[in-house]
Design goal:
With 139 residues, the chain is mainly alpha-helical. 54% of the residues lie in helices and 0% in strands.
Length: 139
């Protein structure tokens, strides 16, 4: 009689622990990106981007690749600061991790959560690498 009760208690405890860990991870992704950029993390983000993202989004993030054109994809131009201005890091994390439309997910086996967070910082930095446009002349 005691064994089934202990087993049931262990199952409930395990389920509650797993559920609360998953819930807290999801909440963390809705907040500001906690990633801290280091030379190593930036190099890893650049490598992940080159391997998994650049084929569609382009080396510079402009979204103008032959594959994107062939697949009839209209991708944001990340070299334009306005392209990501209204997107939260948590939303970008979910899209990268889960995929969207024709975009495949970035599986945890290919990139850990911290690496995806650094990838988001790397992508956001693409607009900062572009020269600032000269102000237009007014008459």
């Amino acid at each position: 009689m005691l064994k089934p009760l202990l087993f049931a208690s262990a199952v409930v405890l395990f389920g509650v622990t797993a559920w609360s860990a998953t819930g807290s991870a999801a909440q963390d992704e809705s907040k500001k990106n906690p990633a801290k950029t280091t030379e190593k993390s930036e190099a890893r983000a650049k490598a992940i981007y080159a391997q998994d993202c650049a084929i569609c989004h382009g080396e510079t993030g402009d979204g103008k690749t032959d594959l994107a054109k062939d697949m009839q994809l209209k991708l944001d131009d990340w070299t334009d600061p306005k392209a990501l201005a209204d997107k939260q890091d948590g939303d970008l994390f979910k899209v990268i991790r889960n995929g969207k439309d024709k975009m495949p997910p970035e599986a945890e086996g290919r990139a850990k959560d911290d690496e995806v967070r650094n990838l988001i910082l790397y992508i956001r930095g693409m607009s900062k690498q572009q020269p600032v446009a000269a102000p237009s002349a007014t008459n």
